[in-house]
Amino acid sequence: MKKKFGKIFSKDSAEKRETITNATSATTNTSVSSLSSTFLRDFDGLKLSTTYSNDTTRVNKREVITNKREVAISKTLANIERTMKVDICYVLDCTGSMSDHIDAAKDCILRVTEYIKNTNPCIRVQKFRKNLDSVTASGGGDSPEDVLGGLHAAITKMTWHDGTRVIFHIGDYPPHGRRFYNGVDKYPDGDPNGLTAESVFEKMQSKEIHYFFGKITQETDTMIQATISSIMTSVTLASSIGSTNSSKQRKDLNPEVPNWDCLPQQKGVILGYNMPETLYELKDQRYFNKKNHFSREFYFKIAPHPFSAGVEKHAYFAIDTTSDPSQKMVMKEYSHDKSENSFEKYLEAVEISTVTGYLSKKFNSIARKKNIPLVDFLEAKVVRAFIDNRTRYYVIEPELNAKFKRFNANSGVIIEFHPTLEAFAHFTYVHTEGYLMICDLQGIELTNRFLLTDPAIHCIDPMRFGRTNLGKKGIEKRFLANHECNKVCRELGIAKVKSAKFFCRN
């Protein structure tokens, strides 16, 4: 029996994800003193983007590099704008077997839609809700359903726009055919119209549609197993801006904590920056040089394989054996790109950590007086060690032992809204007089406190804070244009953004 499907359309906002990438490790007996002195030489070898010079040629080169960076930022912002235009089609099984589940399925769809509306206030959902309310479960006959027909209709009959395209499929039984179901089936040879999972998902791939299935009963388990190869080969299930060759990056991951007793102790040097004392020092990139750094010897053990990988870095379990007892750490290593100065990338990460530490301290000094939750960041440092017969750098920070959440992204998308965190981002913009804004807030939520890690910074100087810095345009287009001041903003006394063009909507 063919099945009826409710096809419902809405819009969503997408998020840009940015995470972690590559390497393995071993041990050596290189002296700590030689590593420390080499650290200082590394500073002297930094490329132009981290130094200033009165030499006309070098200044001109910096201008060229800055212009290229501005072009790259504009392209990234255009891509974000495009991907944030999301078409969502809900394909819902509406036959009699869904009678016990239809209300829950509709409620799920409605909650997704309300979330979309909350993150995109301009979206109108009244007509959508009215159409959803009219959907009922009736008809059918045998257990298998016209799943492939419903998906094919969604793919071919919906008007898909440019941007991100998503199909959410909710149902309790699989398609017709022995391949998917061994019970009573009026069409045991498969779809009566000749559709196959491969042909449907191939067409889905050609239109660059993301597919998600909402499982209700175990009756669809065989369907999931039988079509998994079709889905994996034909449909892009997820994407991340800037990611390349991700399957290769992730092939050696090991999520298990190693047996530390079986691993050798490594030695190296750990480096960080002294905290700026003034806003002037924070804004002056020349402050972040070898005159304002500190270093010390460091002993540690590191897992032989990373437990997580992302666009730019690999993350490893590690322990700090210098402390007693040993402290659990996470060490992150950037992918090896010979076209870039890798040491500079590590210094950028530590500079971001130092700047966020300074601004969170300023924020918390006010928050404590007003009983506002505190915002703290894990302190990141650089480790330099000689491993596998070569110099290796890592960003190191304490391990978070709680449920990790991502609250917002540097694209401006709010994943989980918290007024304190949105006010904190606003505060950093106001406190630095429009110079920068901290975003991409992720970490753990504790009692009256957030403990965050790996943030990004948008800054009007596009040459600072790495590739996740989307510059002045990122501040204006991805935050100020969308920010709505909340009660925490007002308690902090920052109800208006100090900009001639952009103001918070109270």
TrEMBL record:
<dbReference type="InterPro" id="IPR052969">
    <property type="entry name" value="Thr-specific_kinase-like"/>
</dbReference>
<keyword id="KW-0418">Kinase</keyword>
<keyword id="KW-0808">Transferase</keyword>
<dbReference type="InterPro" id="IPR036465">
    <property type="entry name" value="vWFA_dom_sf"/>
</dbReference>
<dbReference type="InterPro" id="IPR004166">
    <property type="entry name" value="a-kinase_dom"/>
</dbReference>
<dbReference type="GO" id="GO:0005524">
    <property type="term" value="F:ATP binding"/>
</dbReference>
<dbReference type="Pfam" id="PF02816">
    <property type="entry name" value="Alpha_kinase"/>
</dbReference>
<dbReference type="InterPro" id="IPR011009">
    <property type="entry name" value="Kinase-like_dom_sf"/>
</dbReference>
<dbReference type="GO" id="GO:0004674">
    <property type="term" value="F:protein serine/threonine kinase activity"/>
</dbReference>
<keyword id="KW-0723">Serine/threonine-protein kinase</keyword>
<feature type="domain" description="Alpha-type protein kinase">
    <location>
        <begin position="279"/>
        <end position="497"/>
    </location>
</feature>
<protein>
    <recommendedName>
        <fullName>Alpha-type protein kinase domain-containing protein</fullName>
    </recommendedName>
</protein>
